[in-house]
Design a protein that fits this description.
The chain is of the alpha+beta class and 96 residues long. It is built from 1 helix and 4 strands. The strands form 2 sheets. It has a two-stranded antiparallel ribbon. Strands 3-4 form a two-stranded antiparallel ribbon. The radius of gyration is 19 Å and the shape is elongated. 4% of the residues are buried.
Length: 96
């Protein structure tokens, strides 16, 4: 019988945005701190003698995937001031 488990990892990152038609201070580019929790459900790997034995996924692999597909696309490396614009990255439309 296959055993399943749920693993969860939390990520913290900074991201910038602005609300261009807002009359308050949020119309200018500014940043926020975010926490993202990712949970995976999957079969517990049966690989005796291998480093993946007893895992659903290695946390380093999960970190690499989340960084490449989400966090790097939303990080605060966004342009500021007059350079702020709509940016499309990795299928996401991000207004900064």
């Amino acid at each position: 019988m296959t055993k399943y488990a749920i693993i969860t990892k939390e990520f913290a990152f900074e991201a910038a945005h602005h609300l261009p038609n807002h009359r308050g201070k949020c119309r200018r580019p500014h940043g926020h701190s975010y926490r993202l929790q990712i949970s995976l459900r999957g079969p517990i790997l049966q690989a005796p003698g291998e480093s993946s034995d007893g895992m659903v996924m290695d946390f380093d692999d999960l970190k690499s995937i989340v960084n490449a597909t989400i966090i790097e696309n939303l990080s605060d490396s966004a342009p500021r001031g007059d350079a702020a614009q709509v940016v499309e990255k990795g299928g996401w439309t991000i207004t900064i």
